[in-house]
Amino acid sequence: MTQSILITGASSGFGAMAARALARAGYSVHASMRDLAAHDGRPAAEMEALARDEGLALHPLALDVTSDASVEAAAAEVLARSGRLDVLIHNAGHMAFGPAEAFTPEQFLRLYEVNVVGAQRVSRALLPAMRAAGRGLVLWVGSSSTRGGTPPFLAPYFAAKAGMDALAQSYALELARFGIETTILVPGAFTKGTMHFAHAMQPADEARAAAWWSGPYRGTDETALQGLAALEPADADPASVAEAIVRIVGLPHGRRPFRVHVDPSQDGAEVVNGVADRVRAQLLERIGLADLLHPAA
Q1: Which of 30, 91, 180, 237 has minimal Cβ neighbours within 10 Å of its Cβ?
Q2: What percent of the chain lies above the pLDDT cut of 90?
């Protein structure tokens, strides 16, 4: 049977690329986005046209991860259309750029709502069906910022992504005995080919931000962004993240890696995560829960 997949945040960037790639690989893909009418409805219309022209099972789906009602309605639509969900991909996210102090608490809450609480909302709506099936994959699209090099002015985003990574690690252990597998995909800082930096949230407290932009940190924001871009190889392609998602989904159940890095800039996250994940596994062995490191057959 064709696997049924839901991916959040599929209107642009990694999500849109992955939704198209998965559909072309033969999966039934529910490509969710906050508002099907946003951006004059172009993202949804383009997916519908692609599905029609290429005969793909690619279904644009309204799903706002910050709304209980929207998530519940989307979950009901997915299960009504496909009867089940085999793969849940947590991809929805939002970036922020600027001095941490100049972001208001409300802005921090908004980022956590999208990057962390939104994933919890979607999980609660769809995991019961996956647990009942006794099989499945939850794939989390994280960020190398959680453990790689961390330049300044990205603190709210880094903190939210770190929260998402911690949530994913705990969920992996709590779903394993239900036969549900977990993979955390860790993209690096792709500065070209997506609109992540261009659409980043800016500090609301502009007067406070001026202490950085006109003070001792004048020009440091440009240095950081230019430095990240310089680390990125000329052939770095964000489509490689979508290709990695397709490869992970296509692997046999029980054979998928816990963590996969796609980081052309090699910011160090793979090294640090390698050590951290080994320590995690050793602790579970020491406390008699090593079986939680792999999904039940």
Answers
A1: 237
A2: 83
The secondary element (H helix, E strand) that includes residue 91 is none
**∠ CA 38-41-43, rounded to 5°:** 95
Provide the angle, in degrees to the nearest 10, between the axes of the packed helices 206-213 and 220-231. Answer: 70
Mean pLDDT of 105-110: 96
Catalytic residue among 27, 112, 157, 217: 157
- Say if residues 155 and 100 touch (Cβ distance below 8 Å): yes
263-292 exposure pattern, b = at least 16 Cβ within 10 A, e = fewer = bbbebebbeebeebbeebeeeeeeeeeeee
Picking from 153, 136, 127, the residue whose alpha carbon sits closest to that of residue 228 is: 153
Q: Which residues, listed in sequence order, are joined to residue 59 by a DSSP beta bridge?
A: 30
Residue among 59, 98, 95 at smallest CA distance from 80: 59
Residue 151 confidence class, pLDDT cut points 50, 70, 90: confident
pLDDT in tens, 20-53: 999 999 999 999 999 999 899 999 999 999 999 9
112 is catalytic: no
Rounded Cα gap, residues 80 and 204, in angstroms: 41
Identify whether the C-beta of residue 33 lies closer than 8 Å to the C-beta of residue 118: no
Query: Under a CB-based contact definition with an 8 Å cutoff, are residues 248 and 185 in contact?
Result: yes
- Which is nearest to 4 in space by CA: 86, 59, 65, 62? 86
Handedness of CA 217, 142, 246, 263 (dihedral sign): positive
